[in-house]
Design brief:
Length: 349
């Protein structure tokens, strides 16, 4: 019994934020920079609330500039200058989206220095950023993905259309292999017109992934890591874009964008439970930890179709993970605190 009490006390000390300075890192050089800055503003407000309540020791906001340098209120310098002068007991809260901040590069740097940070580790971050590789992982393990293919040739013909849809007919989504926020993503109804969509992805410096459009209800599942075999699945959020639109950048982030319902309005509880179980399984298959958000299309019949896992989902006013957390009574500030505590538990030596 005494040993159990000691173990519990040790675990509490490990996740104690009251002696920790939180480094909020935002910005970056990816196409999602502006979204990151919006997430960062909301996260900073939550952290200031935690600091006012003495639930964290300190707060330092660092902006990752587009030229690769980092900046705070008084200094602009290479990352190494900041990393070599961190306050004691620092923990990183990553408000970054896309690019080097989400693809495992930053995670590798922080891991090599023994610094705790939020979100998934190196391998899972890299895997989930790569939609092609994550599709292969899910498909190989019995999860359903949309028919599709990575387009590596400069030109494409009808045979690729059949690969991306059994009947060879559209529509299709053309998206960046490693992009996010639906940037450079196009819905194409005729294969003869796919060229400009492929060029748009290549112009953004990425490889085009083509997937068949699936008819059904678009939903997302927020996932919070916890002790045990599976993460906690938050209630599903149904995403309903405006007629004639898909869930693109404008539908995601503007006030006139898609409608979002938590819980979904058109799915039965049993169907929601099926999607949640798939998301929990995919989270572990990909090696994720901390938290994540997974997107699906749920067709009228047949298994739900996995789209992708986002290892650093947004925290803007329109973001879906905080919406799902609110549905079970987890406020924004509490959600941030939970994520930070999990970062300490997962990554404190």
């Amino acid at each position: 019994m005494a040993g159990c009490i000691a173990d519990s006390a040790g675990a509490d000390r490990m996740t104690d934020l009251t002696q920790r300075t939180v480094i909020l890192l935002v910005g970056g050089s990816s196409g999602e920079r502006e979204v990151s800055l919006q997430s960062g503003a909301a996260l900073q407000q939550a952290l200031e609330g935690l600091q006012d309540e003495n639930r964290i020791r300190g707060l330092q906001r660092i902006e990752w500039m587009q030229d690769g340098r980092w900046s705070d209120d008084s200094t602009i310098a290479p990352p190494v200058a900041f990393l070599s002068n961190l306050p004691p007991n620092a923990v990183f809260l990553l408000g970054l989206h896309g690019g080097l901040g989400e693809d495992g590069s930053l995670q590798g740097l922080l891991s090599s220095l023994g610094l705790p940070y939020s979100g998934s580790g190196v391998q899972a971050s890299a895997l989930c950023m790569d939609k092609h590789q994550s599709r292969l992982l899910f498909s190989d393990n019995g999860l359903t993905v949309a028919p599709g293919a990575l387009i590596t040739e400069p030109t494409v013909g009808p045979e690729q259309a059949k690969t991306c849809r059994k009947d060879g007919g559209g529509p299709w989504f053309v998206k960046p292999r490693r992009g996010g926020s639906s940037l450079a993503t196009t819905c194409v109804t005729s294969w003869q017109n796919i060229g400009p969509a492929l060029d748009a992805v290549r112009s953004a410096g990425d490889e085009p992934l083509v997937e068949a459009a699936i008819d059904g209800v678009e939903v997302t599942v927020g996932l919070l890591d916890q002790d045990g075999d599976l993460p906690r699945a938050l209630p599903l959020v149904e995403v309903r874009p405006a007629p004639g639109h898909f869930f693109d950048f404008e539908e995601k982030y503007t006030s006139s964008g898609a409608q979002e319902f938590c819980p979904p309005q058109v799915l039965e509880p049993a169907r929601c439970a099926e999607v949640s179980a798939l998301a929990q399984r995919a989270f572990r298959l990909a090696g994720c930890d901390g938290y994540a958000r997974m997107d699906f299309i749920v067709p009228p019949d047949g298994p739900p179709v996995c789209l992708e896992i986002n290892t650093l989902p947004g925290f803007t006013q329109r973001s879906l993970l905080p919406l799902a957390a609110r549905a079970v009574g987890i406020g924004f500030q509490e959600l941030v605190e939970l994520i930070l505590k999990r970062a300490l538990k997962n990554r404190t030596p």
